Amino acid sequence: MYQFTLDWIEENWNDSLTLRQWWQLMGDARLSFPRWPSAWFGRDCTESEQNDIARAFADKGVLGPPTGLGVLMGAPVTMTFGTEEQKQRWLPSLADGTEGWCQLFSEPGAGSDLASVSCRAERDGDEWIINGQKVWTSGALHSTRGMLVARSDFDQPKHKGLTYFIIDLEQPGVEIRPIKQMNGAAHFNEVFFNDARVSDADRVSDVNNGWAITAATLGFERSGLSEGAGGGVRVAAGKQAGNLDRAVGELLKHVKASKSHPDEYGGLFSSLQKIQQATGMNAIQRQKMIDLYMNERIAEMTRERITSSMKKGQSPGPEASTMKLHWTNGLRISRDLGMELLGAEGMLTGGDLQIEGKVQHFFLSMPSASIAGGSDEVQRNIIGEKSLGLPKDAQTDPKTPFKDIPKN
Ligand SMILES: Cc1cc2nc3c(=O)[nH]c(=O)nc-3n(C[C@H](O)[C@H](O)[C@H](O)COP(=O)(O)OP(=O)(O)OC[C@H]3O[C@@H](n4cnc5c(N)ncnc54)[C@H](O)[C@@H]3O)c2cc1C
Q: Do the bridges between strand 145-151 and strand 101-104 make them parallel or antiparallel, or are there none, so unpaired?
């Protein structure tokens, strides 16, 4: 696949294509999401074939496929739980990058205990009316739609009265406010719903069956399974202020020169190699580099196992939680090694430092990774309960109607 992809890029890359045209070409060649099924824009590729494709895009230094939560979680949710009509309607625009989705799960009173969401969904004919607040919504400002879990029945216990929708964010009842982070970015947002509307045709699965779809979405998120080929310079999908109509050559220059790093956690391994070439590495640092490599190899094998169970129609199980821990473990080693290699330069920030200050930016982003996608502590609870058979966390309210559960 590596040579095939290199040849394909050689033949098709042209600086003057628009991003829309480039993603369309990649999609037609089935190189954007090689692990997706061949029935839906993919190639049924294995992990190692997909890695070969990613490596070819990276080596050529061209733009990679559309990225974001829509392709990471929205697409597998649609493929697994969507109706045929929903698949036809949503998958093509996720695959060609014209739509980007965000994940509207967490609320001020519901994070680790996600089944406590209180955002309200009330039926109104063929539509639902949504009222409430979400928080920490990554990429909402640049998204066209969101995967929303809302409470449709307050008389049911908390896991039972939830319904899952794909809601249009471009409507008057939706207000999005960015939250500034300590790394200077405003990657996530608060989202307020004030009589927002979503069609019943945009409901995924049955009314009050939202918890099952929510849990599966988190599995897709943690296992990172449906990410695109990656490997190239990354640009998020969705309403990117006209990005889709910009020439790829111009966009590539802009993203490479950008001092803000859109991909807060990615690409650290190759960056560390570059610093190491400049500064050298002692035996202990080399050992850390090897730890990093082993962590990544184990993650690849786990991902391969999850891919094969997904091909049998199963949603990711507790192994998705081990994937999340591999990810944060790798990020932690990268951060520590990167700062060690940089020495005193690690205290400075700015684009004119080694590898454009990427390690320092990453250092400030890293604490959020162990919380994103469900905190590391919660992943350990899941592995303990579901894989090791340890006793469940104490729960006081699994059978009480949600409206009667005391809230602060
Ligand atoms: C970078 C980033 C991006 C995010 N993007 C999104 C997004 O796009 N969409 C979205 O919906 N949400 C998003 N989130 C929110 C994220 O899912 C929540 O922050 C996370 O689930 C934790 O919830 P919380 O913040 O309410 O913390 P809490 O649940 O209040 O947890 C606080 C602390 O208590 C610990 N804790 C809680 N319960 C337990 C337990 N049972 N056992 C052991 N320890 C426990 C936690 O580990 C944590 O350390 C994002 C968060 C981050 C940091």
A: parallel
| CA gap 368, 280 in Å, rounded | 30
Domain 99-213 class? mainly beta
- What are the 10-residue block averages of pLDDT along the chain, 408 residues in total? 94 94 93 89 86 88 90 93 96 90 96 95 98 96 95 96 97 96 88 98 98 94 62 62 80 71 58 77 87 86 81 79 89 89 86 78 87 92 93 81 86
With a 6 Å cutoff on the Cβ, whether 105 touches ligand 1 is yes
221 catalytic residue (yes or no): yes
- Please provide the CATH number assigned to the domain covering 259-387: 1.20.140.10
- Among 47, 99, 221, 227, the one annotated catalytic: 221
Residue partners of 163: CB distance under 8 A and separation at least 6: 121, 128, 149, 150, 151, 152, 203, 207, 208, 209, 210
Q: Is the CB of 183 under 6 A from ligand 1?
A: no
Q: Whose CA is nearest to atom 38 of ligand 1?
A: 112
Delimit the domains of the chain by residue range: 2-67+227-251, 99-213, 259-387
